[in-house]
Amino acid sequence: MKPARRSAHQPSLIPPRNRHLRQPRSTSPAAGPTAGPSRWDSWLSRGASVAQIVGVVLALAGLFYTVIPLYQKAAVDEQLARREAELKMVETTLAEGKAEVYRLRRDSYVRVATRAAAEECSDVFRGLMDLPAGTNESEHEYRLRLDINVVDCVDRYLAKADEMKELNPADLATWRSWASGVVEPLEAQRQKANAEIEALPAKAARDPSMLDAEGEFAAGANRLFTSMERILFPTPKLRKERDRQMFQRRLQSTRERIARDYRQVAAAQLRQTLEPKAWRDERAKKEAAVRAGAEASSAGQ
Prior knowledge:
There is one protein chain. The protein has 9 helices and no strands. By secondary structure, it is an all-alpha fold. It has a domain of 188 residues. The chain is rod-shaped and about 170 Å long. It starts with 18 loop residues before the first helix and ends with a helix. The model has no long low-confidence stretch (mean pLDDT 80).
């Protein structure tokens, strides 16, 4: 029996065991039905976008509220520190200026007071000025008086400085302490000179040689009188009176010389040493610095 013919368009039957040889294998899996994104995926995608936006906003907020204020604060602190340094410099300059003004005022007052105290407390003009009008004592007695207590006299000037507030308390205490070491020895010298003046007549009566020699003019006059002694002083009584007057002149001259020496020494020491040495040294340094600056400026020109 012949097999039945098949038409050209009718596919042939392929045995199941050989189907893989005749039909090409599909490389792609069978496409099932396509499913859309789930609701969770959509929310997660939206959340990620929102998180990114929030992160950017937070970063900008952190920059604006932390970094920029810190930078601004650092800049303000630096500017404040610079201004404080400038202020301290100005305050220092102002304090130095005030101290210099006070020093100049103090030195001016102390120098004027020192000169006045030297003249008054030493009574130096008593031996130079004429006898004041209305004085009941003789000129010799007036010249010999050393009745000004140096300590009390200088204390009056210190009290006046305290009243006028020309010196601060520290400088006033310094001046008092310094002045006490100057005026106390001078007061001791005044008392010693007074004692010598009082005791000199009795000592000179026993030993006239301790009196000062007469001046050149008086010595010449005495030589003349001696050469004419028989004419001018013919009797022993006249010659004795002459000797007594010569003794009195020498005694008075010696006593006045003792008083004058004390006054001159006291006046010189008060002028030179009544002002504290530290203040004098400080003023000398300032004046030397000013002179040096002026010389350098003139040399530069």
